[in-house]
Amino acid sequence: MVESSKKTKGKQKIEIKRIEDDNDRLVTFTKRRSGIFKKASEIVTLTGAEIGVIVFSPTGKTYSFGHPSIDAISNCFLGVNPEPNNNVNPFYKARRQARINELNERHQNLLGQLDNLKVRGKMFKEITKEKNTQDWWEAPIHEMNLKEVLEMGVKFEELSKFLLNKLNEKSLGGLEGPSSSFPPMNSRN
């Protein structure tokens, strides 16, 4: 029997009290400060909130995180009028607008594809209504002999390969309109 022994204590709950050792306290401060700033950044990213965090180290050094800036947040908190320059973060605004434009373009493209598919579906229904003959995939299997069933299996495999190839082309080729070419399939003899 193999014994498994842990090399570390892992994540354990610690008692919240002042750390007496100066070096340990400084290391803990540094790690916790990084964690707090990371969480503040996540809040900004997820919600677009304006946030400010100011931390003083045990040695008296000041650290701050602010979005859009610590000055803008402190001015807002103190009731001071913000500076007239509203271009605090033009990079983020430009990037957000570019992403919105890209998503709108993709949305319009998908709507166009959907309309195209609806039209093709209507055309297909009209063609099949006019056609009284039975297609090869609709043939009753119980009325076929072994040779016909095997031929139908081969046709299904060909169709499957064709469709997989088309899907691969579409996924590699980006968002294009649906293709109108289909594999040559003969009706049942």
Automatic annotation (TrEMBL):
<dbReference type="GO" id="GO:0046983">
    <property type="term" value="F:protein dimerization activity"/>
</dbReference>
<dbReference type="InterPro" id="IPR036879">
    <property type="entry name" value="TF_MADSbox_sf"/>
</dbReference>
<protein>
    <recommendedName>
        <fullName>MADS-box domain-containing protein</fullName>
    </recommendedName>
</protein>
<feature type="coiled-coil region">
    <location>
        <begin position="93"/>
        <end position="120"/>
    </location>
</feature>
<keyword id="KW-0804">Transcription</keyword>
<keyword id="KW-0238">DNA-binding</keyword>
<keyword id="KW-0175">Coiled coil</keyword>
<dbReference type="InterPro" id="IPR002100">
    <property type="entry name" value="TF_MADSbox"/>
</dbReference>
<keyword id="KW-0805">Transcription regulation</keyword>
<dbReference type="Pfam" id="PF00319">
    <property type="entry name" value="SRF-TF"/>
</dbReference>
<feature type="domain" description="MADS-box">
    <location>
        <begin position="9"/>
        <end position="69"/>
    </location>
</feature>
<keyword id="KW-0539">Nucleus</keyword>
<dbReference type="GO" id="GO:0000981">
    <property type="term" value="F:DNA-binding transcription factor activity, RNA polymerase II-specific"/>
</dbReference>
<dbReference type="GO" id="GO:0000978">
    <property type="term" value="F:RNA polymerase II cis-regulatory region sequence-specific DNA binding"/>
</dbReference>
<dbReference type="GO" id="GO:0005634">
    <property type="term" value="C:nucleus"/>
</dbReference>
